[in-house]
Write a structure and sequence with these properties.
257 residues, Flavin_trans-like, binds flavin mononucleotide, phosphopantothenoylcysteine decarboxylase activity, globular, alpha/beta, 6-stranded parallel beta sheet, coenzyme a biosynthesis, 34% helix, Flavoprotein
Length: 257
Amino acid sequence: MPRHATPSDIPTPSTAFKASDHAADGKHHILLAATGSVATIKIPHILAALAAYPGISIRLMLTASSLLFLPPLTSLLAATPNLDGIHLDHHEWPAALSPESYIAADPLPLAPDSESERDLESVGFNSSIWTRVGDPILHIELRRWADILLVAPLSANSLAKIVNGFSDNLLLSVVRAWDTAKPIACAPAMNTLMWEHPVTAKQIAVLESEWSWFTVLRPVEKVLACGDSGSGAMREWTDIVQWLVTKMKLEKAESDQ
Ligand SMILES: Cc1cc2nc3c(=O)[nH]c(=O)nc-3n(C[C@H](O)[C@H](O)[C@H](O)COP(=O)(O)O)c2cc1C
């Protein structure tokens, strides 16, 4: 069986991501996110379809659970010319990868001298991890960079956390720190009984009726991966891409038209 994605596919980058470095690239900035739903297997299809749009820069943000449903991440980067970055929890917060190494670290100094900077590196921090006031903070930089966030699929777990304001991973921190003048779209995907649970309706109602910056691309009915039949399946990935193309007025390369 082919190996699935793992956090070590994309080590913490050696330079920090800064939105301002990309502000003048003249591209639409699409922040695509996936969560721990089987429907994450559609992400390579979504990326392949978006590769036909040269005027966009894509960054992919993945929860830890979503990795189970993806091929090695370097293969996604190789296959998608306009996929300019993949962002994982440990790129912001080393404990997400190795709690032991984080616990071993001294408390973060606000203005470390060169000696303590070396100490941080030796326990897993490097130059893209926040070490001092003024360093870029990944979830804030991603929010600044993005013109739109598309979460496809959105798991029941992440839906609940978003609506309740949780921010204990990179995706949730971006959503929590979002500039509500910019759009977020999400495509929930879950087992039929999860979708039909009354708590789901309450959470979806918040997104649809109270949070104007959110668009919910509602699930469809089909036989799900678990064998149950009914609503809860992620909207067809082609419909999701078409929604994005229309929303962002994306244009294909002339040779693809
Ligand atoms: C094989 C498998 C398939 C799953 N499919 C779904 C799904 O389609 N939707 C969902 O909401 N949760 C699904 N789950 C459960 C989530 O992965 C789990 O709730 C996880 O904590 C979600 O984490 P995240 O929201 O941080 O990605 C699945 C779990 C497994 C093991």
